[in-house]
Each structure stands twice: as structure tokens, then as C-alpha cells.
Amino acid sequence: MLDIRPLSPELAQKAREELNEVPERLEEDVAALRAWLTKCPHIKSRTDDQFLVMFLRGAKHSLERAKQKLDLYYTIRTALPELIRNRDPLNEKLAALMRMGSAIPLPYTDTPSSPRIFLIRPGAYDPAKYSIQDVFKFNSMMGDIMMKEDDNLGIAGQMGILDLSNTTMAHFLQFNPTFVKKATMWSQEGSPLRLKGFHYINTPSGFETVYNLFKSFMTEKNRSRLMVHGSNMESLYQHIPKRLLPTEYGGEAGPLQDIIDKWVEKIESYRDFFLEDEQYGTDEKKRPGRPKNAESLFGIEGSFRKLEVD
User: What segment(s) does the record annotate as region Disordered (predicted)?
Assistant: First the structure.
């Protein structure tokens, strides 16, 4: 018997219709994925049922694609120690970033089967004190918790709101092409999650350069899901209902600081999880065939294969 959360009727229907989920086949597929991992000497992976089901759903229940995603997930994370390693919530720098709320999942979804919404506010941190790598490390911690807990995220996908209020040229200069390529590949190919939309608001001058850089590394499908609203909040509300947003954005989800404080508490409660997570990844010396490293994955010269993700 699988040890996974039961889905709400709405999410169960979405999983069947959009992800090809057949509940009666789940146990067999999870067992097959776990058996495959035992034959992969280079991958040290979590193997609990909920974790493996997430990859099956991310692959629309294609077992071969789930294997590919799981391998890429750990390969890319291992190649990005600056984003994935040393994620102790009690670390002074990480703790400070957590309390700033530079990125935060919002508490409500539009319907019981709608995507999870993330609010990202780079203007909340001082680029003289924190690097974009620090910020993405913090973001990865929230993402890992959500992948573990949130079925809306795993089945319906995610939508992002990037609020560029208070950003400066110093923020934009942190987005060099090498980092942008790493970040895009990590979120696009090294994750089982689906991007369902990304909305830019309060965009300043200079934004277009970074925006075009990100777009250049994205699949056509994901590029089509980007929307720039400038300072027109009414335009944003046409895509993300106003009531789902924090009070500061004209919504009914409560004060932003209350949402941040709840997430700080949650992340701290996951400290043992993040300390344990240090052991997982790939050992490229043990990979059958050609090893993969940061240069072969992210080298700006040449190209990498883009997977179509839905």
C-alpha cells in the first residue's frame, strides 16, 4: 500500500485528465522507479513513495521520462552546490533572507485544482549584502518543502508573480548569462514541476535586458507563458484574481508579513530535512557512460537539449 496523501476529488480528476494518472497503477510504477534507482550506482536519491510519485506526475506517468527527470534532478542539483548545499535554516544569512520574504508562496489558489502562486520580490534584499545565489538557495528550500507537501503544486503546477518594485541596476547586474542559464535549466529541466504562467509587474528600465536573457534559454512553450504588466495591476488581476493576493497588493490573503512569518516557522521546522538532504545527489565517477559536470551541463558555449515541459 502506497504511503501518499489522498487527493481531493478536484485534484484527482486533474491528475487523471492532464497527467494520465491511473491510481490502480501507481504502486507498480513507484516500485519500478525504486527498483531502477537500485541499479543506478551514481544516484543517491530519496525513495519515499510521495517523492517518487511527484516525478511520475511530473512526467505524465511515463516511467522512462520519470527516470530521466529524476536523474536530471539530482545531476543538476549536484552541479549547483552554490544553490543547493549548506541550507541550514539557522544560518545567519539564510535566516535574514527568510525574514525579508524575497519570495513567498501565497496561501490560496483560485480553485481547489488551480496552480500554486508564488510572489517574488527581489527588491526586498540588498544586493550589496546578498548574492542572487543566496536568494535562489533560500527559494530552493521553499520549493523543496512545497514539493513534499503541496499537491496543487505537484499536479496543477505553479504561477509566479515577479514584482520588480525597488529593484536597482545592482540587482540586474547579478543576473549574468552563466547564472541565468543555470537557473533556467534548473527550474525547467531539473524539476518535476510545471510552469503555468509567469507575470512581471512594476518593471523598471533595464528590465528588458534580463527578461530577454531568460527568454533566450527557455522553451517556446514556457516563453509563451510569460506576461509583462508593467504597473497595470488591473491587467494582472485578469489572470490572477485580486482576492488571492496579499493586502499590500489589493488582495484578501492577509498582510504579507503574516505570510512570511508562517513560512519562516515552517522552514525552521524542516531543519533536520535540509541537513539530511546534503547526502543526496549524483556521484559522476560512478555514472555508467560519460560523466556530467557543470561545464557540460551549463557551458555557455554550445547548447544543451531543451525538454518540452508542460
Answer: 281-310
